[in-house]
Amino acid sequence: MFGIMSRMSCFGVLLRTSVVLYLFLKGSQAQCAPCMNLKASTTATEINIQVHSNCNLSTGSTSVFTNSTMATLSGLAPGSTHLVRVLCNDIQQVNCCNNFTTKPAVIATPTVIQTTTSLFLSWTKPTGEAAGYRVEFHNGGTGKDQLTSTTSAIIESLTQGTQYTLKVIAIAQDKITEGDPRTVYVYTKPGVVGNLSVIGTTTSSVYLSWTQPKGNSSFYRVEGTGVSMNTTETSTTITGLTAGVQYSFTVTAVAGDKTTVGEGNTTTTFTSKSSFKFGV
Ligand SMILES: *[C@@H]1O[C@H](CO)[C@@H](O)[C@H](O)[C@H]1NC(C)=O
Ligand SMILES: *[C@@H]1O[C@H](CO)[C@@H](O)[C@H](O)[C@H]1NC(C)=O
Ligand SMILES: *[C@@H]1O[C@H](CO)[C@@H](O)[C@H](O)[C@H]1NC(C)=O
Ligand SMILES: *[C@@H]1O[C@H](CO)[C@@H](O)[C@H](O)[C@H]1NC(C)=O
Ligand SMILES: *[C@@H]1O[C@H](CO)[C@@H](O)[C@H](O)[C@H]1NC(C)=O
Ligand SMILES: *[C@@H]1O[C@H](CO)[C@@H](O)[C@H](O)[C@H]1NC(C)=O
Ligand SMILES: *[C@@H]1O[C@H](CO)[C@@H](O)[C@H](O)[C@H]1NC(C)=O
């Protein structure tokens, strides 16, 4: 019975100690109430606060005294959050605290690796702080976005051979404040042409036909021994060939930037043999 009582009172002491500790912590917080109606703006490295005369602004080990209506804390890391204490020894006797976050820096141009339906982006962390990144993308229509806490992102289920506008935005320590975007324009690789076939041959020419790949593409590159041509059609006649010779032709779809190419498809055929070989 006594044992229980003494344990109970021991618990009571613990409880009272916790309450006192709580009130003490609450009291020290109350000494720095959130600032009301404080006008402020931030850049990547500065916090500008509109104050009255005789004010001291401090954050961490940095402090600044101002007797004008604008106080600036400068030289801060981009994307970083600072608890700023505003103490004004004037008629209004302001004594309050607010968190301010500087704007994250703009990331350097990311590296992009394309496939037909995905884009892999990677970039280096910008100077200062970044809690994560938002990657925005669209191909003219409604945009989508993706969040990542690492310095890379994979965007999937895209349309083949299509231009995408990508924006990579750094998010500050407070997980809210965003930096200015870095924008890049990239094409996914066009798909492979289908049904590539030899429709006909003569002694000096080959007539090829194919079907357009899935998605989008701008034109086709037709290449073979001594042959290189571009066409927007899905068929072509290659002339100036030698009779009875084996030829291979590769047809590759090219994207709108005239540079991004997909996988080629190849067909092999013999040109017709010269008729004199059959004797006339
Ligand atoms: C501002 O106040 C802090 C502490 O309240 C003090 O350490 C600092 O010297 C003051 N700074 C200026 C510029 O008056
Ligand atoms: C700030 O300005 C007030 C009035 O404008 C003046 O009385 C006071 O001495 C100034 N304080 C400092 C530290 O310059
Ligand atoms: C500042 O941010 C810290 C950490 O998120 C939070 O604990 C604190 O309550 C904030 N203070 C004010 C005055 O907003
Ligand atoms: C081949 O052609 C047929 C008929 O035109 C079409 O349905 C099919 O999708 C084509 N195949 C490829 C791989 O493009
Ligand atoms: C090339 O075309 C042929 C004939 O249409 C098709 O069967 C084949 O899948 C194509 N190659 C590739 C890599 O898609
Ligand atoms: C075909 O287009 C490419 C660009 O993708 C260009 O470099 C090349 O010169 C063109 N070839 C011909 C024969 O026009
Ligand atoms: C397909 O590419 C062409 C040429 O680059 C472009 O004009 C067209 O808008 C694209 N269409 C789609 C659906 O992306």
TrEMBL record:
What residue stretch is flagged as signal peptide?
A: 1-30
**Keyword flag GTP-binding:** no
Instruction: Provide the alphabetized UniProt keywords.
Output: Receptor, Repeat, Signal
Q: Which Gene3D superfamilies match?
A: Immunoglobulins
Q: What Pfam families would the database entry show?
A: fn3
* Transmembrane domains' residue ranges: none
Name of the protein described by the UniProt record: Receptor-type tyrosine-protein phosphatase eta isoform X2
- Species: Salvelinus namaycush
Protein encoded by which gene: LOC120066126
